[in-house]
Structures are given as C-alpha cells and as structure tokens.
C-alpha cells in the first residue's frame, strides 16, 4: 500500500467514507454524512507527495540510528521539527531502558580444525552508507555474557518440532552449542528451547536457501544477503514473557524510577547468543559429523553435506556487553478531537533501526509523517476530527517494543478510558497487502482493503491480496 493507504485507514477509523461511498450507505455513520465524508477523504488522498517522502527518507536514513545512540535522538528531533512545521502539536516524550551494546564478540571453531569467525560486514563500493561510522557491530541484543565451549549441534530452524527430532534421535544438548537457521520462528524461542535442554550457547545464521544466493543475486546487484551479511536482532523473550524494558515490567521506565536488578529480569536469555553470516557459518557446519540432516527441510543451500552432530566440531563463544541504561525518544503528535476528545485513534511506527533502516522502519515512518501532514492540510479547511488523533514514532522497537511499551505503561490508566483504536505499521515494500491484529478489526481492515486500489493494477487491494495468499 502507498502512503495514502494508511491515510484511508485513519479516515475510516474516524468515521469517514470510502472512495466512491457517496452513493452507498457506509457502516458506522449516517447516510446524510456520506457525501461530505467522501469529499474529505478525496482531499486527504491527494495530499501524499512522493518528493516529500523521499526527502524524509534521505534525512532519516542517512546515518545509523539504533536506540540509545546520538543518531536515534537526531532522527527523533528531525521528525519532531518536521511534524511541528505542519502546524501540529508534537513533543518528544523521553523514557529509558536497559540497552546493552557489545564489547566482546568472538566465535571460534577449535576442533577438529581451527577457524575464527570474521563477524564483520565489508564496505560495499556501490553503497556509501555500508561504511558509515557509528554502526552497531553484528550481535544479538541482550544475549548473556559468557565464555563457553562445547560440541556443536545443528538444530535446523530451532522450532519445537526440530528440537523434538533431536530428542527422538537421542541427541543430548547438555553442554553443547546449538547452531540454527534464521527464519520460520522468533529468535528468542529458538534460544529458549536450546537453553531449556541444557545448551550453553546458540549461534543463529542466515542460510542462503532462505536469504542469499539461492534466492537470486545478492546485494548490491540484487536484494539478497551477501556471504558476509548478518541479521542483527534482539534475543529478548518479549513475546512470551513481557515486552518493553526488561527491568521495568508493568510500569513506565522514567529516569530515576524503580528498576529490577538484572538478575530478576525474566525476559533476558540465560546463555550467550551470536548471529553469523553464512560465510562464517559454513566452516562450522562443514566440520559437523553425526547423522545426516534428515530431509530437504533441514538441508540448506551451502555447498556442504549437512550433518546434525554433535561434534566433532567444537566451538567457543565469548560474549560481553556493557549493560547500560540508555535513553529512548518517542515522538508524539496530537490532533484534538472536537466531539469525543477522550477517545484516541493512534497510528504508530517506530523510528529506531539496527543500522540505517531505510526499509525497516523509515519507509513506514515517512508514510506516517506524510499522513500527519495530510491531516494538517485538512485542518486548514476548518475540519476537525471527532476523536483525538495521535501519531507516534516509537524508539527502541527493534530491541523488544521498548518505546511503545513504556509509553503505554506510563499512561495505562488513561488508556483504559481513552484508547479506542491502535493501528501499527513498520515498513512498506512492493507486493500485496498483509495485515494482522485484533479480530475485532477484521471487518474494518477488509473494508479498507476493498476500497483502496492496488497501486499497480488498480484492482481492489483485497482482491490482489487474496490472489497472492
């Protein structure tokens, strides 16, 4: 969906009409209001400007801006200044969270041969930003400190059924280091299963079958991951335990406020975890013996025979982080409602990235900002929304939904009475629409998809999505 797609979503959530709806009854508001609502939406749909979106994109993705960095503050301040230039009320609401940066990262094959992982992405001549200073090293945030050595075991994608197969094969993971592929499951669940079975460390790598040369040309010729490309990400167990700052579960993390001791935080993994490129993973996997990987689902696209182990490959992982508390900067803009100001319609998208983040999250953040500008233009005509509209650019999402969770926890009492609808976006890419969330919004999303045309074919977005999925 283009930027106007989320504008339409907001229009409908506020009780406005779908395009062409002047001739039909629209669920949710009186028939005599349809024509005016259609006029308003036409105005909003005309607002998004590709040149402005490009300018926002270039400014916000120019430098690395991971949470807790000066770059994240600079992006937040740019977004704040830009939104205020539209004439909207906006502020930065600051929180803080445990945001550990890595100080030691080491992976080494110690037997039967020796190999030390490079753990570095080379600068690409065609991409000036690939060598930007200030990049976070390749790592998994919140991985436990430790210096551990153990026999290597390959556990496919690290899904429950993969670990169950190891159990049936009688492979004991106690004291081992497990290597798994990225994909088909959340990172923290892969780690938790291994830790539960006694593993002392986990390595996660991107197999080229899923994200690499097997799929097509690698970057910079094509979009797929090169042999030294590494997927950064969080190891925090925020999906199963609790999201947000691991030291403040259930309450907003403000400077000087109450915090758990790190030993009390239940969402932190208990073992070292490291991500590797498939270039670094190949020598480790090639050194494995034991049973053959059972089928094509387990076998990847590296030019090796995939074995499960354990051993004779023996691997050492050494991880350390600084475990510092660092600031978060949420950008919050509001358009007060004229009739029901205590009912909030919130559109959120994060602004922090693991590196420059042009796709995730800047493509979504810029669309949110341009949607906000569209509503600011509508305000100039004398229109006012019935309910309060909130546009939120969150910080710390990549680490485990930190900024949004802390904001929600800080304002929990108000939300019980005020939050009517929350719409979230993350990034925009070519292809059919995908949406997920509360079942109470199923009809709403279906109607938006019905009424918004697909930007390529002109057909209803709903029809294109159904054909694709």
Helix-strand category: alpha/beta
Number of helical regions: 13
H/E element sequence: HHHHEEEEEHEHEHEEHEEEHEHHEHH
Separation of the first and last Cα atoms: 16 Å
Task: Please state the oligomeric state of the protein chains shown.
Answer: single chain
Could you characterize what this model shows?
The chain is built from 13 helices and 14 strands. The chain starts with a helix and ends with a helix. It has 469 residues and is of the alpha/beta class. The longest helix is centred in the last third of the chain and has 22 residues, at 358-379. It has helices at 3-13, 34-45, 50-60, 70-85, 160-168, 187-196, 208-211, 278-286, 358-379, 402-410, 412-418, 442-451, 461-468, and strands at 89-98, 102-111, 115-116, 140-141, 146-154, 177-181, 201-205, 233-234, 273-276, 314-321, 325-335, 340-350, 387-394, 419-424.
List keywords for this structure.
single chain; 469 residues; alpha/beta; seven-stranded mixed sheet; five-stranded mixed sheet; 13 helices; 29% helix; globular; disordered N terminus
State the gist of this model.
The protein has 13 helices and 14 strands. The chain is an alpha/beta fold and 469 residues long.
Describe the secondary structure blueprint for this structure.
Blueprint: H1 3-13, H2 34-45, H3 50-60, H4 70-85, E1 89-98, E2 102-111, E3 115-116, E4 140-141, E5 146-154, H5 160-168, E6 177-181, H6 187-196, E7 201-205, H7 208-211, E8 233-234, E9 273-276, H8 278-286, E10 314-321, E11 325-335, E12 340-350, H9 358-379, E13 387-394, H10 402-410, H11 412-418, E14 419-424, H12 442-451, H13 461-468
Parallel strand pairs: 4-8, 5-6, 6-7, 7-9, 12-13, 12-14
Antiparallel strand pairs: 1-11, 2-3, 2-10, 5-10, 11-13
């Amino acid at each position: 969906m283009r930027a106007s797609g989320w504008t339409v979503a907001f229009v409908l959530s506020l009780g406005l009409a779908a395009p062409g709806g002047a001739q039909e009854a629209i669920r949710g508001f009186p028939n005599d209001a349809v024509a005016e609502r259609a006029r308003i939406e036409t105005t909003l749909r005309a607002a998004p400007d590709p040149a402005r979106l490009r300018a926002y994109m270039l400014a916000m993705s120019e430098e690395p801006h991971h949470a807790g960095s000066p770059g994240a503050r600079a992006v937040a301040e740019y977004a704040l200044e830009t939104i205020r230039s539209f004439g909207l009320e906006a502020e930065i609401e600051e929180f803080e969270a445990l945001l550990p940066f890595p100080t030691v990262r080491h992976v080494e094959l110690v037997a039967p041969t020796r190999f030390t992982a490079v753990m570095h992405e080379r600068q690409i001549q065609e991409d000036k930003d690939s060598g930007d200073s200030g990049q976070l090293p390749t790592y998994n945030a919140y991985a436990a400190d430790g210096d551990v050595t153990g026999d290597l075991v390959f556990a496919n994608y690290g899904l429950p059924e993969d670990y169950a197969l190891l159990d049936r094969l009688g492979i004991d993971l106690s004291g081992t280091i497990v290597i798994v592929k990225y994909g088909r499951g959340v990172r923290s669940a892969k780690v938790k299963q291994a830790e539960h079975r006694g593993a002392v460390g986990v390595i996660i790598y991107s197999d080229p079958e899923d994200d690499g040369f097997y799929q097509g040309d690698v970057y910079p010729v094509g979009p797929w991951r090169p042999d030294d490309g590494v997927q950064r990400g969080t190891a925090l167990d925020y999906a199963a335990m609790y999201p947000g700052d691991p030291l403040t579960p259930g309450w907003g993390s403000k400077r000087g406020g109450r915090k758990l001791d790190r030993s009390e935080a239940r969402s932190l993994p208990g073992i070292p975890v490291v991500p590797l490129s498939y270039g670094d993973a190949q020598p480790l996997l090639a050194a494995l013996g034991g049973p053959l990987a059972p089928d094509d689902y387990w076998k990847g696209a590296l030019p090796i025979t995939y074995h499960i182990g354990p051993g004779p490959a023996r691997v050492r992982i050494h991880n350390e982080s600084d475990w510092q508390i660092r600031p978060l900067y949420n950008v919050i803009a509001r358009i007060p409602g004229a009739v029901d100001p205590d009912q909030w319609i919130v559109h959120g998208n994060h602004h922090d990235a693991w590196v420059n983040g042009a796709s995730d999250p800047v493509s979504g953040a810029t669309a949110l900002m341009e949607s906000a500008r569209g509503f600011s233009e509508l305000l100039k005509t004398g229109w006012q929304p019935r309910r309060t509209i909130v546009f939120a650019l969150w910080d710390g999402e990549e680490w485990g939904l930190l900024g949004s969770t802390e904001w929600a926890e800080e304002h929990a009492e108000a939300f019980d009475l005020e939050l009517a609808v929350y719409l979230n976006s993350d990034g925009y890419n070519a292809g059919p629409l995908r949406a997920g969330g509360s079942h109470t919004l199923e009809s709403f999303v279906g109607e938006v998809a019905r009424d918004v045309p697909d930007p390529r074919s002109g057909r209803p977005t709903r029809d294109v999505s159904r054909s694709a999925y």
